[in-house]
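Troubleshooting log. The previous structure file for this entry was overwritten by mistake, so regenerating from the original sequence record. Sequence copied from the archived sheet and checked twice against the printout by T.R.
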Amino acid sequence: MPSRLRDRNVWFGLLLGVLGLIYIRSMSASGLAELPHLMAALTVLVPLTLFGVVLRSPWPAAAALAFLIVINLSLN
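Regenerated output below.
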């Protein structure tokens, strides 16, 4: 059984998680999202990214990123 560190899907899921963190940071820097919105975004992003690592699939992290886009669009 291959190690989790050698699996491309795990790295791609983590990359999507980092992209989500950058997206949350840009939401914060724009001043549009306040603390409750940022905490909701982190509450979605972190568990789904870690769930994707456990499953060795990037799809939960991609779903979290899509949900972050929905949160950002709801603020506009």
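The chain has three helices and no strands. Archived copy saved in two places this time.
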